[in-house]
Amino acid sequence: MKPSYLDPIQAQKIERIKELLKVPCEERTEKMCLELMSFTKDFKLFENISMSIEHQNVCSTMTLNNFKPNEVIVKQGDPGDSFFYILHGTVNIRLASQIDTGIKEEGDSSPRIITIEKNVGVLKDGQTFGELALLYGTPRSASIVAVTNSSLIKIDKEPFDKYVKNIFENQLQDQIEFLKICPIFQKINKDELIKLGVRTEIKKFSTGQTILESNNKVDKIYIIRRGGAKVTRDIKFIKNDRKIRKERTKKLTSKQFTDFEDLNNRQQIENDKMIELLSAGPSDEDIKNGNYISKEITLETLKIGDIFPSYYAINSLYLDVKFEADTPCEFIAIKLSDIQEIVPDTYDFIKKYAKPYPGEEFLRKFYYYNDAWNKYKNALKYNILADSINKKSISKNDMRTKIYQRKDLNSFKLPSIFGAKNMNFK
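^ thats the sequence. predicted structure below, dont judge the formating
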């Protein structure tokens, strides 16, 4: 029976995988194995051997396991000899603990110990469990119990040890070494690092490729391992802002001023009023009629070790920014639910310090102040040079030529008024 909550294409795909897994291992053809390989190529176990002969050998031994509600899939303390991938369904993670009730039966001096099980997590379609047991042969650390009718892909320890273990172990160790140097994970112990390492994904992007698009929700954080990225946002501006500037300038020049200081003060006041007006952006009516222009603003550049987009993931918000690869880069992606389960203190730390990017009105204000600042710098450069050239009686045309030739003045810089050195405008 097809899962009703899946879209038709995904449900059809899952039904096809179930059909293939029902075929006895010894009767599976190469074509069948290729279909299974295509479906499982993104499994973490197969990251470094995807679509290889080793991958094919493991796919030829996979089995399908179906469970009914409340049926135990694995039991805490049992030997760990298999790995599971949830094709569809929901399962609970149950942890058993022993409690001393303090009650003693008559004639018995030993305390009465009872075992209590509680649900500590939920796993659904596309999630896995049993990696650590498979890798290290340790007993099951928790019980897994089906909540709904569930179909799981099972990989046994023997083919894993034969074809995958060494490669997977090296890859896992590499990821653990990187996690160790990340500030947010430096205080966690070795077992927690291993559990996190098993749950991480490696993602690679080429220069200019979109990592995360705006208007999407995310449930993971990304840590840059190699390369760099940038954060951009498209901001809507008033289309006829030049007209507004011109009207403000006319209003200013039509007035009489007693001295230069008075004029300068009035200019500052009028400029601030103009920027406040322009920073409000286009009205809903302007946007509806297409009477606006968009500019792409680079909010931040990200480097090795930087984490994103924690604020949006923690608060389950739609992205209002875009993340794009600045250079060929590689990321480690970890689900927030995994961090919360394995290292709750780290999750709380991320939640406490995750901050949003500035809003549109602030960015528009920054843009206009930045524009005014650049005009002031250019005028200052021109006046400094003009003053020195005028003393030598040089013509205006020659003066312009001299200005362009003076590299020291063309690279003349003053500090940004916002101190936001990473913000750039296109």
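The two ends are 53 Å apart (CA to CA).
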